[in-house]
Amino acid sequence: MPTHDDQEAQPPYREFASRREGMIFAMDGGLWLHRHVWRGRPMAHLVSTDRDRLLAYGARVGLSAERLQHKPLKDPRTGQVREAWHWDLGGPFLPAP
């Protein structure tokens, strides 16, 4: 059974090798960290349908709530467009791999 210290050491987000699996996780309210390169620089999107959970993460790491971006996304299981949000994470806000 995980201890409280184990839970604290785990990041509040998950990464997936499969974009589809990450999207499903985000559609279920999880925080999906999707790494990519933009204009030659490493960055990531932290994506979820749970806006409050994203805002809580942002508050913990020092992101201004005004930077949270709304972008409806298609649920890969149903094809229906769902409300979703993401943070653009780069520079000091990009978690280490």
Query: What is the CA-CA span between the terminal residues?
Result: 25 Å
| DSSP strand tally | 6
Instruction: Report the sheet with the most strands, covering strand number, pairing sense and barrel closure.
Output: 4 strands, antiparallel
Total helical elements: 3
Number of domains: 1
Average pLDDT level: 92
User: What's the gyration radius in Å?
Assistant: 14 Å
Q: Briefly note the structural class of the backbone.
A: alpha+beta
What percent of residues adopt helix (DSSP H or I)? 25-40%
Helix and strand pattern: HHEEHEEEE
Shape: globular
- Report the sheet-strand fraction: 25-35%
What is the topology, as strand order, of the major beta sheet? Answer: 1-2-6-3
Point out poorly predicted stretches: none
Write up what this structure looks like.
- The radius of gyration is 14 Å and the shape is globular.
- The protein has 97 residues and is α+β, with helices and mostly antiparallel strands.
- 27% of the residues lie in helices and 28% in strands.
- The model has no long low-confidence stretch (mean pLDDT 92).
